[in-house]
Predict the structure.
Amino acid sequence: MEEAFILSKISNPETKTYGFNLLLKHYQQRVYWHVRKMVIDHDDADDLTQEIFIKIWNNLDKFRGESQLFTWIYRVATNECLNFLNKKRKRFFLPLHDVAEELTQKIESTDMISGDEIQLKLQKALLKLPDKQRLVFNMKYFEELKFEEIAAITDTSVGALKASYHLAVKKIEQFLNEN
Amino acid sequence: MKRSLDDIKNTTPFTVPVGYFESLTGRIQNRIQVEAPKHRSAFIPVLKWSMVPAIVILGFVWYFRTQPPLTSADLLAEVSTQEIIYYLDQTGLDEAELIALIGDDADFSTGLEEIELDENGLQELLDEYDLGEVL
């Protein structure tokens, strides 16, 4: 379904709810997986995904179409993920590696995971990265977004993103070979 | 053997409960119907917190306005007899001074005045109650 069609429904007050339902069905899985890869825990991802769409609904009138709808939704989701991780850190006064440790334990203990050993190892390696670098890596590697799209979402230059991604790849491969 | 990211499938290993996404749509739609868009005024938090002292002050005003003024009898009633006796002991006033303080209106009659007895009868009564030394 074309983004333009969803937008046309959303911009009309009489079809706004219908347009939002189309948006929800079109993007909910992408948003959920985007969030899940960052917060690891299913329940946290579930809560955050709901909050993200509530926020999108409450701010639909403010969307001026200056960016793509997809970019705007991803930007809201990305900010919510980063806020969630920051709050977690502040709440428990945990330094970076402790949140990473907590998420690593979730990977090891959850039954909602079904990858082979090397995929699990990759997930653990990703948790060694800073949140923003992990976010960029996820969007490029798993979601296969273009650097230009990631740049629009994160409001960062393409050059900086490329550098961040290649640095992340090096760190991950180093982790995989050392462990 | 050196591992590279090219050796790993770029699929996520995470899973979700069966039927999760179908239920997610409904849950979000339900929440949107319940939660109306929030238009919060910057004034509301200020107003909310300024209400607390205002309510406390109004409570005090209401309490004191509805209480009737206390009379000296009310105040005296709040003091126990033991405390009064203790106070009087500490003041060192004798009986005459106490009567003078209370005033002339006080009735300190013993009731003996109303009994008409001759001298012998009075002596018998005093002997009976062993009050000879007191009077």
User: Anything to note?
Assistant: Chain A touches chain B through 38 residues (CB under 8 Å).
